[in-house]
Amino acid sequence: MTSHDADLQAAVDATSVVHDTGEQEDLVEALREALAERDVETSDEEWLRRTVEGIKADRNYVIDSEPSDFVPRRDREGS
Question: Where is the stretch described as Disordered (predicted)?
Answer without folding.
Answer: 1-23
